[in-house]
Description:
By secondary structure, this protein is α+β, with helices and mostly antiparallel strands. 21% of the residues lie in helices and 22% in strands. The chain has one domain: HIT-like (HIT family, subunit A, 2-Layer Sandwich). The chain has helices spanning 4-9, 57-73; strands at 17-20, 24-28, 36-42, 80-83, 99-103. The protein has a 5-stranded antiparallel β-sheet with strand order 1-2-3-5-4, with helices on one face. A hairpin with a 7-residue loop joins strand 2 (24-28) and strand 3. The longest helix has 17 residues, at 57-73. It is globular and about 35 Å long.
Amino acid sequence: MTCIFCKIAAKEIPAKIVLEDEHVIAFHDVNPQAPTHALVIPKKHIKGIAETTEEDAALLGQLLAAGRRVASELQLADGYRLVINNGPHAGQSVFHLHLHVLGGRPMAWPPG
């Protein structure tokens, strides 16, 4: 297993975990882009959102629901952004599907 996020999910690499259930794990990003920045990943290795299939629909729903729970846990009542990057041109640097939960400051639009 060489995927860093798979290693975090398997507890082979330590992380500051925000929440975990049987399908997803969320942890603080080590390179935060906002005052609050957590990542939510499926425990199942999927390279990116483009590699998901119809069979992953429930897991994708769990990923978004976990993002909402993370925002609540981290007290982002003033607002937050959920972001999924797909591919290098979108800024994806770890090729394991992950949802960014960003908050703690006003977000500009358009992003990027």
